[in-house]
Design a protein that fits this description.
The structure is a homodimer. By secondary structure, chain A is α+β, with helices and mostly antiparallel strands. Chain A has one domain: HIT family, subunit A (2-Layer Sandwich). In chain A, 33% of the residues lie in helices and 20% in strands. The first copy, chain A, has a five-stranded antiparallel β-sheet with strand order 1-2-3-5-4. The first copy, chain A, is globular, with a radius of gyration of 15 Å. Chains A and B meet through α2 and β4 of A and α2 and β4 of B. β4 of chain A pairs antiparallel with β4 of chain B.
């Protein structure tokens, strides 16, 4: 099966907003205004674990994680990044990238299981997406993530 | 500074047991018998974030994550793997690899913040380390993780 047969898990779709199609992954904004929180969802049919990706797909995902991490640092100046692939509730492989601050609601704990998310208002969503604008330039992403 | 100047964070040292020296990372067993739980700690001075590693170091870490994931699957047959780099409390870059089961104490939540860990008894530690024995063969690891 090719990536054309891939479909985003409906729970991930409900909990996040689309940002960009990267080479391997769909990049989404998690719908919780408490944290600048990205999701990378590789468009690989039936992938649940990182090791379900081929070695080359893993390396592309790593480059996408690297690039999106740099975007979060540049645009939001967090105190720490949290990167995680858990998938205990939603099995479709997805990677969380979360910008954390020492004064955010969950610090220093992980963000999961802290009660309901603070959904973005339309205005707040527009503002956040505009701050993420650089990451939306998929062409630019491709140029920047050549191996060094 | 070279990796010879690197020192394991004392809190990570207290909370885990040494398993092996991989090419980039020190591999350790987290001291919580509730879960088969590995730590990969790259021996890179002052690294806090994944992006503090060079592109080539990132790729070695990815290969170490891939290999250790396969060892956990092969030896413990978990329902899910959890992979995370958080570092909100201990800044030294470290990656958690945790074998999860639908009947484990935290499922389906993440494992962090669930109260004190269940420390291994000496006998249980020996049993667990022996089940992880394949991952201790660093030479074998090097052979297996050539890029494909």
């Amino acid at each position: 099966m090719s990536s054309r047969d891939w479909q985003l898990d409906p729970r991930l779709a409900d909990d996040s907003h689309p940002l960009a199609q990267l080479d391997l992954s769909e990049l989404r904004l998690f719908d919780d205004g408490n944290y600048p929180w990205l999701l990378l969802v590789p468009r690989v049919v039936d992938a649940r674990e990182l090791i379900d990706l081929s070695a080359s797909q893993q390396r592309v995902l790593l480059a996408e994680i690297d690039h999106c991490s740099r975007v979060l640092l540049a645009r939001f100046a967090p105190d720490k990044l949290n990167i995680a692939a858990l998938g205990n509730r939603v099995e479709q492989l997805h990677v969380h990238l979360i910008a954390r601050y020492r004064d955010d609601p969950a610090w220093p704990d992980p963000v999961w299981g802290r009660g309901p998310p603070r959904r973005y208002s339309p205005e707040a969503l527009v503002e956040r997406v505009e701050r993420l604008h650089p990451v939306l330039h998929a062409r630019e992403l491709r140029e920047q993530r050549q191996p060094t």
